[in-house]
Amino acid sequence: MDTRNLEKRIRYVLLFFVAALVASGLTAFPLKWEVTILQNLFGRGSFIEGIWPAMSAWISFVYQGLMEMYAKYPFIAYGTDWLAFAHLMIAVAFWGPLRDPIKHIWVVEWCMICCVMLIPLAMICGPIRGIPFVWRLFDCAFGVFGIIPLWWVRLDILRLKALKAGGA
């Protein structure tokens, strides 16, 4: 593969990852609206209750807690605003690799480390916060599936570096 096509593929994968980060970040803002939709579709009294009662009960429990929090302590939602902000700022960090992937490969590697560290965070903090194991696995999936495109793009950046060194 020539350097031009490799650079194009690197940028497409990075843009996909950035879009995923932005989407993930933006969904942290309308949490009340999203959890209301989840409650209506999958909470107690929905068809899911007959199939997976524990998940239905969990969604209803989260809904109740979130509604009470918004009614009594809306400032706590500021924490999810910061979560959203962090996702958006991590996405901005990919501006460097998009411009010069070889020089800024460290951003990709740093984000790979973040994907790996997400797993112990979910497995340590999840039980402390009362998060069901299945939901922690769902959270871990972000790290597992996030590292795949990053690993792929890192290998492509290393290939690009080798191609450019050989052509120089």
What are the salient characteristics of this protein?
8 helices; elongated; mainly alpha; 168 residues
Write the layout of secondary structure elements.
Elements: H1 3-26, H2 31-42, H3 47-51, H4 53-72, H5 78-93, H6 95-99, H7 105-128, H8 133-167
Helix pairs in contact: 1-5, 1-8, 2-4, 7-8
Describe this structure in words.
With 168 residues, the chain is an all-alpha fold. The chain has one domain. The chain is built from 8 helices and no strands. The chain has helices spanning 3-26, 31-42, 47-51, 53-72, 78-93, 95-99, 105-128, 133-167. Helix 1 (3-26) runs antiparallel to helix 5 and helix 2 runs antiparallel to helix 4 (53-72). It is elongated. The relative contact order is 0.14.
Detail the poorly predicted runs.
none
Sequence of secondary-structure elements: HHHHHHHH
Radius of gyration of CA atoms, rounded to a whole number:
20 Å
Distance from first to last alpha carbon: 17 Å
| Secondary structure: helix percent | over 70%
